[in-house]
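## retry 2 of 3
previous attempt timed out at serialization; input unchanged, resubmitting
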Amino acid sequence: MKTVLKWAGSKVRIIETLKKHLPAGQRLVEPFAGSCAVMMNTDYPAYFIADVNRDLIDLYKLIAKQPAAFIQTAEALFETGNTEAEYYRLRFAFNSKPVGDVDRAPLFLYLNRHCYNGLCRYNKKGEFNVPFGKYKKPYFPRNEIMAFAEKAKLATFHCGNYSEALKAAQTGDVVYCDPPYLTETANFTAYHSAGFGHEEHGRLARAARRLAGEGVPVVLSNSDAEMVHYLYKDFSISKITAPRSIGAAAGSIKSAQEIIAKLLPAKQLHEVIACD
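## retry succeeded, writing output
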């Protein structure tokens, strides 16, 4: 199932592969919500969806609460806003509203679908700064919004650092982490003004180990980089090839090597070995 937002690193194209690595559980905890592709394409009884990006979580909360009203407001922006001048006017309007203002949510969807390659990027002032995308007719995701509103009945949404979401995990949960990826030379930090650097990746790896030690299975996605293999050297690691369209030429899809790292609690690991 497609998602409400376009998203760099979306798991839509690899979801069938990813699902093979996700254990069963009573609730899926996602500290890096992104486009919610995993929530929309899995069948856990409940979800705890978190992200540090306030605009993202506010959008999801509003859709969950008032899908029809959200569609009416957002669709009007799509009908008149597909010009460069109007895009920058609406981007300025978005940045002029305080974080948490309910009017930012439909504008956030508009910007996501009209900006260059659907990128989500902020400057150091916290202002959305992606340029106009110049699309012939941006797609309005009406069906995806309604499907999300229905699935959101099973979800709790939380805006906060990944560590807060990990602390909320408990026995019976499954944790899936999809952080901004590390590369051999640098890592992407502009998704939110707070950034996500190498030290944070190290903290995340240590937190994942602690959770598994407490009985909660943890699955993570990341790039197939040497540092990633070092951070997760005691995890079960599977390499995959993931299609990528963000940053690619129009009409083309590039691919990237990624890993899926999994660490099961000792009890579950013994059960898997016994079944094999």
